[in-house]
Specification:
This protein has 360 residues and is α+β, with helices and mostly antiparallel strands. It contains 14 helices and seven strands.
């Protein structure tokens, strides 16, 4: 059975959406002023940063990165540590690693100039089908359908697609592509995003203000707010670990770098046990501690949510007579390292639980 209902009499008019966009476009730090060509570097950077992250969260990070590295060549010349340092707190750190790798690939393969073709863009690190289409459309006005989450919601309602988004992605992309006009493809892509972000919102869509109101099958059927259909989310599993707050005689605390691949790849962390499905006993944790020491458990735990699981970390504190080998940092200078949010939580918890004589 086809999940697309019969369309109302008025077909969706791209020009009506563009006219609405000309009046109501959002003022975003990465968006070119009306009538000016977009900077491919800023488009690419914003699209990578906005993956699974909101506009208000991204805006200050974007401003800092552009101020420090104003073009792709400057970013390519930076070290991965510098990029991770600027990225800390934004999450999904694979994006930062891919951002750095992509900048270097653009310089090495394309002389520091982003390719205009979506297929060539997809060959760069961290650029998938959506991001390639967005860059090609917004930066180069290529007739590509940039279908992000906002656009998917608009299209699902516009055509009354009753299947969940995950099952309808290919269909939504085809429908979106059919609407992209020959001219102003970049503005159309941004207009579709803005419509979803400001009018066709997940809850209580403001249909009366929508430029496509008379063309919307879901609005005609009175089911706009019920779409897109929401698939049941599985319960996130719980994992447990023990972190080691190891201090040496000068007050510095031990750190280590996580492997480049995998969760929080390349970031700096406090040593810990593996994260597993059952809690650790103190004896089990001490057996895998980074050094032999007199370990004592700190009160409380640190909890953190990742996309696919929830984590609870207990903390063991100890002293070491170790010298300069390894990665050590004074507590007051921990902010100079690329610490993910979880490790910042852990540092706050440990420093509040330990006596001032230990935290220096």
């Amino acid at each position: 059975m086809d999940s697309t209902r019969s369309l109302p009499p008025d077909p969706p008019d791209p020009e009506a959406l563009l006219a609405w966009y000309d009046r109501h476009r959002r003022d975003l730090p990465w968006r070119a002023p009306a009538g000016q060509r977009a900077d491919p570097y800023r488009v690419w950077l914003s699209e990578i940063m906005l993956q699974q992250t909101t506009v208000p969260t991204v805006a200050p990070y974007f401003a800092r990165i552009v101020a420090r590295w104003p073009d792709v060549s400057a970013l390519a010349a930076a070290s991965l540590d510098e990029v991770l340092q600027q990225w800390q707190g934004l999450g999904y750190y694979a994006r930062a690693r891919n951002l750095h790798a992509c900048a270097r690939a653009v310089v090495a393969r394309h002389g520091g100039v982003f390719p205009e073709d979506a297929a060539m863009l997809r060959g760069l690190p961290g650029i998938g089908s959506y991001t390639a289409a967005a860059i090609a459309a917004i930066a180069f006005d290529r007739r590509e359908a940039a279908i992000d989450g906002n656009a998917e919601r608009v299209l699902a309602r516009l055509f009354a697609i009753t299947a969940p988004i995950a099952a309808a992605k290919a269909q939504l992309r085809r429908l979106g592509q059919s609407l992209v006009p020959a001219a102003r493809a970049g503005d159309f892509a941004q207009a579709l995003m803005d419509l979803g972000a400001t009018i066709c919102t997940p809850r209580r869509p403001r249909c009366v203000l929508c430029p496509w109101r008379t063309a919307c099958a879901a609005a005609a059927a009175g089911i706009a707010e019920a779409l897109p259909a929401r698939a049941d989310k599985p319960e996130r599993p719980q994992r447990y670990g023990v972190a080691f707050w190891l201090t040496r005689s000068d007050g510095a605390v031990m750190l280590r770098r996580r492997p480049e691949q995998g969760l929080l790849g390349g970031m700096i962390e406090f040593p810990s046990t593996p994260w597993r499905e059952t809690p650790w006993t103190v004896a089990e944790a001490v057996a895998v501690a980074p050094v032999a020491a007199e370990w004592s458990a700190l009160p409380g735990t640190v909890r953190h949510g990742f996309t696919h699981f929830r984590l609870e970390l207990a903390i063991l504190a100890g002293m070491s007579a170790a010298g300069d080998d390894g990665l050590w940092s004074p507590v007051a200078r921990l902010g100079e390292h690329a610490l993910p949010t979880l490790m910042k939580k852990l540092a706050r918890h440990a420093t509040s639980a330990l006596p001032p004589s230990v935290v220096r």
